Amino acid sequence: MLLDRNLHIRAIDTFIDPSVPRERAIITHGHADHARSGHGAVLATPDTIAIMQTRYGVDCAGRFQALDFGVPLLIDDVSITLYPAGHILGSAQVLVEHKGQRVVVTGDYKRLADRTAQPYELVRCDLLVTEATFGLPVFQHPLPQTEIARLLKSVRDNPERSHLVGCYALGKAQRVIALLRDAGWDAPIYLHGAMLKLCGLYEELGVTLGDLRPALDVPRADFAGQIVIAPPSAIRDRWSRRFPDPMVCQASGWMSVKQRARQALVELPLVISDHCDWGELQQTVHETEAATVWVTHGREDALVYWCRQQGLEAQPLHLQRFEDDGGEEAA
Ligand SMILES: [Zn+2]
Ligand SMILES: [Zn+2]
After folding, report:
1. Which candidate in 271, 280, 288, 312 could, as Cys together with 307 as Cys, close a disulfide (CB 3.0–4.6 Å)?
2. Pick the CATH number of 8-138+274-330 from 3.30.365.10, 3.40.50.970, 3.60.15.10, 3.40.1350.10
3. Could you state, in order of their start, the residue ranges of all structural domains in the chain?
4. Spatial distance between the Cα atoms of 254 and 85, rounded to a whole number of angstroms
């Protein structure tokens, strides 16, 4: 087999998104459960390399090799090509080809348009290794524009309150800001300190986010009617006391689960996901024409069952992941 169940490409002794340091790694994207520091050599898109170096330091791997989307790289007789995954900036699917066999590892992906990430491209293959974070029929994500419209309506209806939107710092925060801008919100957006570096990097890499300001040294009353973006943990701790009567919001695919929103004390849940929903997962399996599907990263069983019903060979892949900075928040 070209790829084993640890996402190890044996012929070139290279792992995809390994959870422990390896001599050679291909990294699909910058989230901490995929990109770790300490590998000998990292192959990734230029944006992913920039994100890793911003988060973990420029020396977080022995060496880096940047590979642009759509450009095949031949290593011995194995060809590697990265294709956009549409999940966050720089996120890639990995196509591995060897003697006519095609394997695609999706990493995390979504198919809805998002101007903060290169748009998803379908890649046909024989073996598809797909994530299934939202791999249950109950997950049908609404359009993000609808959710942003709800947020803006709440801001208009509550001019004396500040709106604190909990967002994961990499990917979600920038997407929510871009959605707000595209919906016509051109007031300053205030940021928790944890957001500043990555928003700055996105801007540097060409994603315009408008007027962003640190939520520091601003008189309390001035936050009335304003939008503040912060990590989900911060909106519930002492940090949030600096804002007048904050409306606690959170943007995540998990916000469709009402109990989760309630437990997280979220007053205004926004269902904005950076992963495929159930329908998109099915559509992808179908369109790749893969005969074999391995399902990982979430709710494997339902998608495995569905694939088998379609006559495909399907297996759950229980990869060990270390979700040290809140895997759920990345959803
Ligand atoms: Zn991710
Ligand atoms: Zn992930």
Report:
1. 312
2. 3.60.15.10
3. 8-138+274-330, 144-270
4. 20
pLDDT tens per residue across span 93-115: 999 999 999 999 999 999 999 99
* The predicted structure's pLDDT at residue 60: 98
Same fold, 8-138+274-330 and 144-270: no
Report how far residue 113's alpha carbon sits from residue 141's, in angstroms, rounded to the nearest whole number.
13
Query: Which ligand has the minimum distance to the alpha carbon of residue 133?
Result: 2
CATH number belonging to domain 144-270 = 3.40.50.12650
In the reported structure, the alpha carbon of residue 324 is separated from the centroid of ligand 2 by a whole-number distance in angstroms of 12
> CA-CA distance, 71 to 231, in Å (whole number)?
35
pLDDT score for 320 = 61
- State the distance from the centre of ligand 2 to the C-alpha of 105, rounded, in angstroms: 12
Residue 115 Cα to ligand 1 middle (Å): 16
| Alpha carbon distance 164, 183 (integer Å) | 18
Which ligand is located closest to the Cα atom of residue 29? 1
Are the C-beta atoms of 312 and 293 separated by less than 8 Å? yes
Q: What is the mean pLDDT of the chain?
A: 94
Of 191, 146, 148, 199, which is closest to residue 171 (Cα–Cα)? Answer: 199
Cα of 80 from ligand 1 centre, angstroms: 21
Q: In the predicted model, is pLDDT for residue 314 greater than 80?
A: yes
Cα 91 to averaged position of ligand 1 atoms, centre (Å): 8
Distance 129 CA to ligand 1 centre (A): 15
pLDDT at 286 over 80: yes
| Cα-to-centroid distance, 29 and ligand 2 (Å) | 9
